[in-house]
Amino acid sequence: MMRLRFLSLSFLLTLLSVQAQKVMYHGTKHYDAKVRQFQREGRLPDGAIIMLGDSHSEYGEDWNRFFPDVAKIVNRGIIGDDSRGILNRLNQVLPYKPSKIFFECGTNDLSHGWTVDRTFQGIVRVIETIRRNNPDTRIYVQSLLPLNERVGVWKLLKGKEDMIIQLNHRLEDYCIRHSLTFIDLYTPLLGDRPNTMREDCCRDGLHLTAKGYEVWADAIRTYINE
Predict the structure, then answer these.
(1) What is the reported pTM?
(2) In whole angstroms, what is the distance from residue 199 CA to residue 211 CA?
(3) How far is the C-alpha of 124 from the C-alpha of 39, rounded, in Å?
(4) Whole-Å CA distances, 106 to 56, 114, 165, 174
């Protein structure tokens, strides 16, 4: 009974701490619908592994298909989400003490006209909130993905390939300095043309094909299983 009370108190304190980080946030209709869906789903499995991010994570759908021996991977990606939206909904993840979080973010921040520095600071704010509230959760920071304008052009990201590279470098350096794991998804997705995603991995200039998700799964397999 005492242990149950302690766990309940710990859950409440974590929830209140995360909520204290929140500011008024207005998401898209899809964002709001997904947040309501996650709320209905309720408690996460003990020792869950979370895929936390934007459309790249959400379109991965059931990540357990890549790792059938794990079976505790929960998709918490939302199409169109950015660092503000992810920070806003950490209260749906952190109180359940997931064992690992595979975090990717930044593409939508850049598409909103944010600078590399502002985007970097937004991502770091999410990472530091996770670390402060859940010091035992292992965080894996995943890079942004390359684009392919031959396959499709995303107007709000056009010409921002260099910004993606700069942001990836800053995230990798941050992870080195803070003893976090940085996972480079950018390089294995590159094709023959500089700074351009492989065409067999890219379905619309930005998002991944089934082959692209296989490449991603291979890149994180060691970390999923460790």
Answers:
(1) 0.89
(2) 10
(3) 25
(4) 11, 9, 11, 15
